[in-house]
Amino acid sequence: MRSYEAHVMEPGNGRYPGRVTFPVVGMVGGGQLARMTHEAGIPLGIRFRLLSDTPQDSAAQVVNDVVVGDYRDLDTLRAFARGCDVLTFDHEHVPTEHLRALQAEGVTVRPGPDALMHAQDKGLMRARLAAIGVPCPRNRIVADPADVAAFAAEGAAEGTDGFPVVLKTVRGGYDGKGVWVVRDVTEAAEPFKAGVPVLAEEKVDFARELAANVVRSPHGQAVAYPVVESVQVDGVCDTVIAPAPGLSGELSAAAQRLALTIAKDLGVVGHLAVELFETRDGRILVNELAMRPHNSGHWTQDGAVTSQFANHLRAVLDLPLGDPRPRARWTVMCNVLGGDFPDMYFAYLHCMARDPGLKIHMYGKDVKPGRKVGHVNTWGDDLADVRERARHAADYLRGTIQE
Amino acid sequence: MRSYEAHVMEPGNGRYPGRVTFPVVGMVGGGQLARMTHEAGIPLGIRFRLLSDTPQDSAAQVVNDVVVGDYRDLDTLRAFARGCDVLTFDHEHVPTEHLRALQAEGVTVRPGPDALMHAQDKGLMRARLAAIGVPCPRNRIVADPADVAAFAAEGAAEGTDGFPVVLKTVRGGYDGKGVWVVRDVTEAAEPFKAGVPVLAEEKVDFARELAANVVRSPHGQAVAYPVVESVQVDGVCDTVIAPAPGLSGELSAAAQRLALTIAKDLGVVGHLAVELFETRDGRILVNELAMRPHNSGHWTQDGAVTSQFANHLRAVLDLPLGDPRPRARWTVMCNVLGGDFPDMYFAYLHCMARDPGLKIHMYGKDVKPGRKVGHVNTWGDDLADVRERARHAADYLRGTIQE
Each residue of A225-246: pLDDT tens digit? Predict the structure, then answer.
């Protein structure tokens, strides 16, 4: 018999008399990731407490125990943490120094700041991955447009000037925001205007993008989901195919090993998404890291034995992790972006009638053009069919097709 | 293209500015069925409002929009309904006359009182099923113990006195409560003490119990889940096996047809569970009806394309129904009952470590001996193995086995 005595959480703050042993998870951030984490926490019987910017946020609409407050304020975080056995995150934006302060005061923060800072700061992430020998695109911090030109020249092949170059602010970017592809020194001026350090990276001529998602718990147990293909449109995730079609067993295993190594070496607790480039010559390079449930793992809600959300909760609570294996030959996720019509209810009805096996996940968000407001999952044996079903529903919900 | 214009709900009470078209479902009753219905409603993007007896009830712990109040009070129901596009139920106990009053005032009640009264009153149910030709155990309303003896004598075979007889109060029973199996006229006194009409039924010498679960929407669409075997222990559901092992295609189809007929003829909207006896000579007789998500359908959360909870919501909103087909060869559900230990957290850890594919569903309820506090689902190709996994977890959580 395996003993878990070492990992059992202390009871919460006594707000639930008679139910002291099922712990309270506090999640900072009220977006759709928190919404779906709460959904996954309901069958687990845990308590879920939310720190949300507003009472209207996606997760705040569906969670019972909501604190409205500013995650940038240490006192707010401190008061919120008081009711929780463990603190975890819907986004990377909580200041690292606040997390250190909370940790010093005895709050259990998972992932902890020593790990999370690598998802918060792309410069730190690149330096650390280089130190542990993880292959990345050529990169360095650049000081100004002239330095960008120098960086480009360093990578120039015979007869080229090394442009285009990818520039990223080291903090605060997501979904293509905070990222520029610049074709010359003139275009390189823009990213420096925010006053945030800028990272230059070679523009990788990739064959496609992959994601290797793993979950790691404090006692060191880890599980790896199948490696997926991720298709981006205008810098925003559009489609995820699980598993990545035609990916060799070798490269798939290498990507999983890479993600497990990063999780272990950085001390990640919870879900880690490693976004990868698959190069045309069959290598993999790390693009980005996220230490929370991630868009590339939404397919697991309907396509895996245990979803990324359930496993993230199990990990931050140091519960044994759930089986990450797929339930279907193919699962496809397409994001639903807002279109020109603010009202999706007609389209939603139509999609349900057309495809009774379609799984729609709506976030309760106001529709704005280009905004992620939901996603759909489909599964089956025929990839072309599975993909077409998800594609159709996402396009119909957005309003880009009619029928 | 199919038009749904006729079925679109009027927007809610405007409490969610900018999100008027996703409707508000109000559920009366804060038990685990409401908890799991809310869980299923999160991806649907609908609003879920709860009328709960206390703020500590199973569903009240996880729902954002909770009204605490007494469902037996018409004014409370009226105020609650004001914020909802449709009213539905976690239990059968709302007085029928209140539902009629609400309906008369324009509230959309699903299932409506004309259907629901057959799940509220066993006498009405038996009379109606007889009228539409549905096979039931021999039964009639009895006036006193002498009348019970007369009922028994009417069914006596050669050389017997017709006992034992099953007696049920026509209202208020569940999980074996309100049901007696009496062996003689002396024992027949007890059920009359409550002052509620008593129904006598023959004690069917059944081979096993089955359940046929269907979902029907107001526009008449209906789906049928696979017929399951339900194993009761001490009058409480213990195990559900989907599909019922060894059930002939003919009997399975007959059971589904029967349930669909009842749903249509009684005008049921939402989930209908038809509990059945399979007799030793290969007939099926209706035991009980429930017009809400039901314990015999909990396996659908992990074992069907669309769960009973999601389909109940889709039905009461008149949305197109989801695919009811199974995702695995076998799915088994076992209820987790409370044992002698109030703290299940150690056992829960152990079960997760032992079986990473186990799906635990906890209700957030205080542990009391014999009380349903959760259930587990397992699935796979080998029924003996799938059943053993669920059995083990339920027993370990209850504390009846150690290892």
Answer: 999 999 999 889 999 999 999 9
